[in-house]
Amino acid sequence: MNGSSFDTARKKHWSVLGPTVATNLSAKGFQAVYAESKKEALDEVLKLIPAGSSVGIPGSVTIREIGAMEALAERGCDVIHHWDPSLTGEERLQRLQDELLADYFLTSSNAVTKDGMLVNIDGNGNRVSGMAWGKNTLIFVIGLNKVTADIDEAISRTRNTATPPNALRLGLETPCTKTGCCVNCSSEERVCKALLILERATGGRKTHVILVGEDLGF
Prior knowledge:
alpha/beta, single chain
């Protein structure tokens, strides 16, 4: 098989796996759909978020990869995020708070189990806080590269697959940036401090999950 044949086989696999995982998520109270591409995923996001809404976007590479920030800004949404390097420390803290209070909280997940649970790890706790509770609408966009067999594999993925490149992106000096894997360090710069497992959609809010048949995020 050549490279294109492998890509075709992978796409076919994901076109079957995506709807299966979406069905399992829906059985757990999430409103889940499958999108074959980044473009389709962005279209799904724009269907859910009306023009003029406020949208909190925490530290998610996936959301930036699908072009959601630009598309939402173009339709007049107030896009709130804390990645602006020009922010002072106090301004950044305020942005973190404002993200949680926006009309929509738009993020990804470090892992999703094939039976429909979402697993995330966080350093500041802002991202998992917004996932655990809020009066707003929660939207996940998740590439199928993040599907795992079970919770144990999902937790391992958060520590060994998602965290090292994220620490490298942030320019940190944690041990995982040297080893490429988690060593359960005690570094002051450690970015895996809070672990959240969503076994079901939490009560009192709508939670949407858009699964995408592409390799997205860490």
